[in-house]
Design goal:
The complex is a heterodimer of chains A (678) and B (510). Chain A has 678 residues and is an all-alpha fold. A two-stranded antiparallel sheet of chain A has the order 1-2. In chain A, strand 1 (61-69) and strand 2 (78-84) form a beta hairpin. Chain A has 29 helices and two strands. Chain A has helices at 3-6, 8-25, 34-56, 86-111, 118-137, 141-159, 167-197, 208-216, 231-249, 258-261, 267-276, 278-288, 290-293, 297-318, 324-344, 348-375, 388-391, 393-407, 413-430, 434-462, 469-472, 479-494, 501-507, 513-519, 527-537, 548-574, 588-594, 599-645, 652-674; strands at residues 61-69, 78-84. The mean pLDDT of chain A is 88. Chain B has 510 residues and is mainly α. Chain B has one domain. Chain B has a two-stranded antiparallel ribbon. In chain B, helix 5 (134-155) runs antiparallel to helix 6 (160-189), helix 6 packs antiparallel against helix 8 and helix 14 (338-369) runs antiparallel to helix 15. The longest helix of chain B is centred in the last third of the chain and has 32 residues, at 338-369. The model of chain B has no long low-confidence stretch (mean pLDDT 92). The chains are: A mainly alpha (678), B mainly alpha (510).
Chain lengths: 678, 510
């Protein structure tokens, strides 16, 4: 099976080819380039599955394939390379699968709706997929950064797809700017990694996580430059710098503000951004270089706390939104918060698990919302819907499966992964890291809100009586919409079965497949190694309430109970023929939530008003003072020139007089200096 | 002999273009200018040297012909190419040809003189980047100003006279100060040098004890004063803050092709000379004053970017952005690391291409809309999709999008300056300068959103349509060059680092 890895570059290049084709000759291609995109992502999917099988058979791949900048040998090389290990292989399959389904769905959402600019759309999708796949297989931090930025570009292109309107270009700009702000820190971090370690490789003996580990263990083989700081302090600083990019792209507090606006893009793009590409990139990066973060308890603590806080913070905002995609947007922010919580709490597997299940159920929910939006003639307001259950059964049942997974209801996939996230935080919190308990509590509380807003959305959209004419007679959807929904619907139900930890603990059956999957692979990149690192350097130990089994069951029961309570409340309030806005009872809290805690206001003020004022001030200073001095010098010389010109009268006798005067003055001067008159 | 042949040919081509009829001058100049392009690409293909033009090692295409002796100093025709000048020569010839094509639409008046001056300028620019004798170099250096003065002053906008005179006087005064500083150094060297050959002077200056008392100045003071004089002189050309105010005026008034040459090549004369003179000849002084120099670099980056943000005229936005980008070059130079100085050199080429692309694109938009003000139009992407697409690509190139030349250059500079052993607080300076990438993204995205997107709005009494092919083609060529250098920076970076290494190595003596 070694041959599989020879084709890994093609996984990235196929969608890139589709981008080039759509950009160049998309106008004359069938379906505006859609078929080429489907073929390309389908090919990527097959190759990804092949690579995954190769990894399953114990193969891994870590090769430099291209030297970007060689240097002269006195300094380090900058290279591109491929790293395919269990984590990357799993992510490759997820990304290419969802990209493939999104392409198919787009046939229904874009082509059938008579959109113009389809070549541009499919070119963007192709480049988006290629960039993300390139990011996934990157074997060093620089290459990862480069593809990370390209992902940002693609999000800008696609969010602003409907550029003739006002709002989408503005949302695109905001998405790029906010994430660019995060990427600024990321780039400083990349530069710092090179300056510190002389390499940015993720894997192998000479990789930067390995060098950092060796340095902390006091067995550094090569000299590393920590700029005068204690190594662990410096590693924390570097880790937090890179984290800036993660917080931006994965929409964590306080850089989450771009994501709800990004709903201005076409809905399939939202599915791609939220489930598999841009937002996932941040969390994937932390997982990719987990060996580095595991060395720093401070960085881990911050990741966990930011994650827990974001999970709760975003979930509360999701409660009051009126538009179906807005609810989903806040749920995305919240769910990525869980992944960050898991990573910070030492739950590398839990985070990866939730990344996977979330990819499936969130893609499903977005595509389901897309189907609803087609049916509703592009009206997204849930208060105009209602009763769609009978009229679009495929969409309803698949959307319900996704919602049950999102809310974390047993036995849907989201339950297993979210449960494991919370369990990891609880166990490590009890094991002597109390900060994690605070993050855990926030994550746990968010489960209730998640259950509530998810089912509020389901009931408002599908149950009750239709509230508008459009909802009474919705537009039908075709196979190209239903097929992706069905595939994802099945996955949203079953994906959790790969890692049923509580069942395994109860029965003793060996069914924790994801644990096994991530435990093998390249040395230094396995979940076991990460466990050792968090134990050794971050002091993470597991503590229990009673025994391990009771803790597992207690944790599962708590989160399930809260999810059911939230869903139950939503059932009581909204599963009625004519629901009303119960959230009005929240009063001014609702206004606060509806305005997203006024996070956008201060950020817009900073980026727009404040920056512009600084710019205007600088411009005034430049025109007035700096250029003023320049013009002043020229005026002085012009003025003195015009005065001196007056002695040039053109009258010979005047010149003769001046000559004589000058000669006398000169003689006097020389005489005085020479002492003739003494 | 290829350098002599190219320079001589270009002078003759300029003369021939002067004599060509106005209606054919554009095509004639274009065809004539292809020869230097081919010649420089041939040189690039044949290039196999690894040395530094001033500090030794082998050079490519070197010739030395003794010319005359003045006051005990030999003046020679001495030209040659190393890894620093080779990319700049290719940049010069390629940009000249593309600017000539981009002039076809806007330049209708006195065309033969316009194109003749462009070629005359190219010949002198080639001289600047190849001359290795100070006298020869200075002649070319000053001679570049003359065509530029006329190109702005004759074919420029409404305030062209003010802009042209400001440009000429400002840079000429700067040249004078630089000249005095350098000649003082040469006199200070006394018998250590017997010619104005730049390699001889550079190598003498990098040795201990060669410099004598000059007037009231001790050798150390002389070094510092000369460094300051040259830094000011070249800094005006770069331009660095606070001697940058001639630049926006010149750019706004200059016609598009001239702006392209000004931003693309003429600014690089300043950074090239800083590298050759200040940073190669007097590394000790540079390193002593590393903190103020880095501070100037950071201020240029951030202040320049904020100035760009305040502008409403697309051309002024690009012009001020140049101030910002050139700040990165200074930061890279002061780092004295392979990636720092190499990245700075790479940035000269990258910025030449990217700013050239942006100026040309703005010019194409202006040809169609007759306005460059951000507030005057919106939704242009609806009517000019290809031009808008290229503007988007160029703007993202300027923002440092990976796999485009600008990212490579900036990343090299950042890595190089972060790890600099010469610059105290190098990480702090680097991180501060890097914030420029956020500001630049901010104002370019705002400007694009306003002009290209949203509902189409522009009041004209004619239909706005796609630009003609000969307007678009140079843009596409430049974009391809930018992407090629971004994907494969080794095309130039290998030879650059070879030439840069001696500057760093021998600097250890100080």
């Amino acid at each position: 099976m070694a041959g599989a890895f020879d084709y890994t570059p093609a996984i990235v290049l196929l969608p890139f080819l589709s981008f080039l084709l759509a950009l160049g000759v998309g106008r004359s291609m069938p379906k505006g380039g859609a078929l080429a995109g489907i073929a390309a992502t389908g090919g990527s999917l097959l190759l990804s599955v092949w690579a995954m099988l190769a990894v399953a058979n114990g193969g891994t791949y870590n090769q430099t394939i291209y030297t970007w900048a060689a240097g002269t040998g006195n300094s380090f090389e900058l290279t591109f390379g491929l790293l395919v290990d269990p984590l990357a292989a799993m992510m490759l399959v997820i990304v290419s699968l969802i990209a493939f389904l999104v392409h198919v769905f787009s046939l229904g959402y874009m082509n059938d709706e008579g959109e113009t600019g389809l070549p541009r759309y499919y070119a963007g999708l192709g480049l988006f997929t290629a960039s993300m796949l390139g990011f996934v297989v990157a074997n060093n931090l620089l290459m990862a950064f480069m593809f990370f930025e390209l992902v940002g570009l693609c999000s800008w292109l696609l969010i602003g797809f409907w550029f003739r309107e006002e709002a989408p270009p503005s949302a695109a700009k905001k998405a790029f700017l906010v994430t660019r702000f995060g990427d600024y820190f990321f780039l400083v971090g990349v530069v710092a990694v090179f300056a510190t370690f002389g390499t940015a490789a993720f894997a192998g003996e000479g990789s930067f996580p390995a060098l950092a580990e060796a340095a902390l263990a006091g067995e550094a083989a090569t000299e590393i430059n920590t700029f005068g700081f204690a190594p662990q302090t410096w590693f924390t600083v570097v880790g937090l710098l890179v984290l800036g990019g993660v917080v931006g792209k994965s929409a964590q507090f306080p850089l989450h503000t771009w994501l709800p606006d990004a709903m201005e893009g076409p809905t399939p793009v939202s599915a791609l951004i939220h489930a598999a590409t841009m937002v996932a990139a941040g969390v994937y990066l932390v997982a990719r270089m987990y060996g580095f973060y595991a060395l720093s308890p401070t960085a881990l603590g911050i990741i966990a706390f930011v994650g827990g806080f974001t999970a709760l913070f975003a979930a509360t905002m999701g409660v009051v939104k009126r538009e179906i995609k807005q609810v989903l947007a806040y749920s995305t922010i919240s769910q990525y918060g869980y992944m960050m919580l898991a990573l910070g709490a030492g739950g590398y597997i839990a985070a990866t698990f939730h990344l996977m299940t979330h990819a499936f159920f969130k893609a499903l929910l977005f595509l389901g919302a897309g189907s609803v939006i087609i049916a509703m003639h592009h009206n997204e307001n849930m208060w105009d819907m209602g009763g769609l259950k009978e009229r679009m059964p495929v969409t309803y049942w698949t959307f319900l499966a996704g919602s049950l997974a999102l809310a974390g209801i047993f036995p849907f996939s989201g339950f297993w992964s979210k449960d494991e996230v919370l369990y990891e935080a609880l166990a490590h919190g009890l094991g002597g890291t109390p900060l994690l308990l605070a993050a855990w509590a926030m994550g746990l509380l968010a489960v209730f809100f998640t259950g509530f807003y998810t089912f509020r959305m389901v009931f408002l959209t599908f149950h009750g009586e239709p509230r508008t004419d459009v909802a009474r007679d919705p537009h039908g959807v075709g196979w190209n919409v239903k097929a992706p929904l069905t595939v994802l619907g099945v996955l949203a139900v079953v994906a959790g079965f790969v890692n049923m930890v509580p069942v395994a603990k109860l029965t003793g059956a060996h069914i924790e497949f994801l644990h096994d999957w991530l435990a093998h692979g390249l040395g230094g990149l396995t979940s076991e190694h990460y466990g050792e690192l968090t134990g050794q350097f971050a002091g993470y130990e597991t503590g229990y309430v009673g025994s391990e089994l009771t803790t597992v069951l207690l944790s599962g029961a708590l989160s399930l109970g809260l999810a059911l309570a939230g869903a139950g409340l939503a059932y009581k309030l909204y599963n009625v023929p004519a629901p009303v806005e119960h959230t009005d009872r929240l009063g001014s809290v609702k206004t606060l939530l509806f305005n997203n805690y006024y996070q956008d206001e201060y950020q817009v003020w900073l980026a727009d008003t404040a920056a512009r004022n600084v710019a205007r001030g600088a411009d005034k200073f430049d025109q007035g003072v700096i250029d003023g001095v320049v013009n002043g010098i020229s005026s002085v010389s012009l003025f003195s020139g015009s005065r001196v010109r007056r002695i040039q009268t053109g009258v010979v006798s005047n010149y003769a007089a001046l000559l004589t005067l000058g000669l006398v003055a000169l003689l006097l001067g020389i005489g005085l200096m020479g002492g003739w008159f003494l | 002999m290829i350098i002599e042949a190219l320079i001589a040919y270009t002078f003759v081509a300029a003369l021939a273009t002067f004599l060509a009829p106005d209606e054919r001058a554009g095509q004639v100049a274009f065809l004539l200018s292809l020869v230097p392009v081919v010649g420089s690409l041939y040189m690039w293909g044949q290039y196999d040297a690894t040395g530094n033009a001033l500090l030794g090692g082998d050079l490519a295409f070197e010739t030395t012909i003794e010319w005359l002796r003045v006051a005990g100093y030999t003046l020679s025709w001495h030209v040659g190419v190393d890894g620093i000048s080779m990319p700049l020569i290719v940049l010069t010839t390629v940009l000249t040809t593309l600017s000539i094509v981009s002039a076809w639409t806007p330049i209708t008046d006195r065309a033969s003189q316009f194109y003749g001056l462009m070629l005359f300028m190219e010949a002198n620019l080639l001289g600047v980047f190849t001359a290795l004798d100070f006298f020869l170099w200075f002649v070319f250096w000053e001679a570049v100003l003359v065509p530029m003065y006329f190109l702005i002053g004759v074919w420029g906008g409404p305030r062209r006279k003010y802009a042209a005179i400001k440009f000429f006087v400002y840079t000429n005064v700067a040249s004078l100060v630089m000249f005095i500083g350098f000649i003082a150094l040469v006199f200070g060297l006394g018998d250590s040098v017997s010619s104005l050959s730049l390699p001889e002077i550079a190598q003498a200056l990098r040795q201990e004890g060669t410099l004598g008392q000059f007037g009231a100045l001790t050798p150390e003071a002389l070094r510092a004063v000369a460094f300051a004089a040259m830094f000011f002189g070249f800094g005006v050309k770069v331009p660095i803050v606070p001697v940058h105010t001639w630049l926006p005026d010149a750019h706004v008034e200059a016609p598009t092709p001239v702006s392209v040459m000004l931003a693309g090549v003429l600014l690089k004369m300043g950074t090239y000379a800083l590298l050759r003179f200040n940073f190669t000849m007097l590394p000790d002084v540079a390193q002593t004053y590393a903190v103020p120099i880095a501070a100037i670099a950071v201020i240029s980056v951030i202040y320049g970017a904020f100035l760009a943000m305040a502008q409403q005229d697309l051309k002024r936005i690009v012009a001020y952005s140049s101030v910002s980008s050139m700040g990165y070059v200074i930061l890279g130079l002061i780092a004295y690391t392979e990636y720092g100085v190499g990245g700075a050199t790479f940035q000269m080429v990258a910025h030449g291409l990217i700013s050239g692309l942006l100026f040309m694109t703005v010019g194409v938009i202006y040809n169609a809309t007759h306005t460059r003000m951000v507030g005057d139009m919106s939704g242009l992407a609806d009517r000019m999709p290809i031009t808008s697409g290229i503007l988007v690509a160029g703007a993202f190139g300027y923002m440092g999008l990976p796999l485009m030349a600008g990212f490579a250059a900036e990343f090299f500079i950042f890595v190089g300056s972060f790890e600099s052993a010469v610059l105290p607080f190098a990480p702090v300076f680097t991180a501060a300068a890097m914030f420029g990438i956020v500001i630049v993204a901010g104002y370019f995205l705002f400007a694009m959103q306003r002009t290209l997107f949203g509902p189409f709005r522009l009041e004209t009494d004619y239909e706005i349509t796609s630009a003609p092919v000969h307007d678009t083609l140079p843009l596409a060529v430049l974009l391809l060059c930018i992407i090629a250098l971004g994907v494969a920076p080794e095309l130039f970076f290998g030879m650059i680092t070879d030439a840069v290494t001696p500057i760093l190595n021998a600097g250890g003596g100080f």
